[in-house]
Amino acid sequence: MCYALCKQKNVRLKGGRIILIRRPTMRDLGALTKYINGLVEEDAPIDMTERISTSFERKWLKENVDDFKNGKRHYVMALLDGGMVGATNITVGKGRHSHVAEYGISVDKKYRRIGIGSALTKYILDVGKRDKKIKIITLRVYEFNTKAKAMYEKFGFRKVAYLRDRVMYKGKLYGEYVMDWERK
Ligand SMILES: CC(C)(COP(=O)(O)OP(=O)(O)OC[C@H]1O[C@@H](n2cnc3c(N)ncnc32)[C@H](O)[C@@H]1OP(=O)(O)O)[C@@H](O)C(=O)NCCC(=O)NCCS
After folding, report:
1. Phi and psi angles of residue 83, each rounded to the nearest 5 degrees, phi first
2. What average pLDDT score do residues 121-131 get?
3. In sequence order, what are the residues at sequence separation of 6 or more whose Cβ sits closer than 8 angstroms to the Cβ of residue 56?
4. Is the predicted pLDDT of residue 85 greater than 70, yes or no?
5. Largest Cα–Cα distance of the chain, in whole Å?
6. Cβ neighbours for 160, distance < 8 A, ≥ 6 positions apart
7. pTM of the model
8. How far is residue 9's CA from residue 40's CA, in Å, rounded to a whole number?
9. CB-CB contact of 22 with 124 (8 Å)
């Protein structure tokens, strides 16, 4: 369960700064909305393309706080300089896919390349590895997202499929890779 597995943790980055990694609560509504809209405004290589409202995010957070409790979703945010600077999650599949979890990650543009992505990935993979029903952690990444692909490979994800023309980004079609981490 995320409540049991996603413990609050301070992590020292390679440059010495310390981030706090923890689950979000309803009090983080404003920070989460601002964070997601920052990624949308940047046109980051993620599936979300529309700005979200606080009421949309409140609904999402309410529904997901339950999922955090029952272990269907593990979600944590990273905090630095008094604000939200990154987030990661793994969402466990249902029924015949209940051994497969989908992973996602993002870091605020102003805070990239200082190790936050790696710290979050390490944290959420540790959570996934302790959740013994999860055998495969899977992700999708746009083919041109070399930074993200390099990070995933560093953490043991391997390309298992290429989906041609799967995403439209800045008016052009691109392929997408499926990458898996498998429990040995
Ligand atoms: C991908 C992302 C999460 C990486 O976060 P980050 O905090 O910058 O990552 P880190 O500083 O921990 O770097 C992790 C690894 O990523 C790779 N990487 C990150 N930035 C890179 C860059 N500019 N050039 C080359 N490799 C890069 C490197 O392998 C790096 O490892 P290293 O430091 O040992 O060289 C971040 O760039 C991001 O949020 N991008 C926009 C959203 C996104 O693409 N999400 C993933 C969707 S699939």
Report:
1. -135, 170
2. 94
3. none
4. yes
5. 43
6. 178, 179, 180
7. 0.95
8. 28
9. no
Q: Supply the DSSP string of 98-141, one letter for each residue.
A: TTEEEEEEEE-GGGTTSSHHHHHHHHHHHHHHHSTT--EEEEEE
Please give the distance, rounded to the nearest whole angstrom, from the Cα atom of residue 106 to the centre of ligand 1: 9
Q: Please, which residues bridge with residue 91 across strands?
A: 73, 102
Q: Is the CB of 128 under 6 A from ligand 1?
A: no
Mutation pick for ligand 1 pocket among 36, 43, 88, 112 (CB with most ligand atoms within 8 Å):
112
Instruction: Output the 3-class SS for 46-102.
Output: CCCCCCCCHHHHHHHHHHHHHHHHHCCEEEEEEEECCEEEEEEEEEECCHHHCCEEE
Instruction: Please name which of 105, 78, 106, 97 lies closest in space to residue 21, comparing C-alpha atoms.
Output: 78
Contact of 85 with 116, CB cutoff 8 Å: yes
Share of the chain above pLDDT 90, in %: 86
Query: Which atom from ligand 1 is nearest to the alpha carbon of 86?
Result: 39
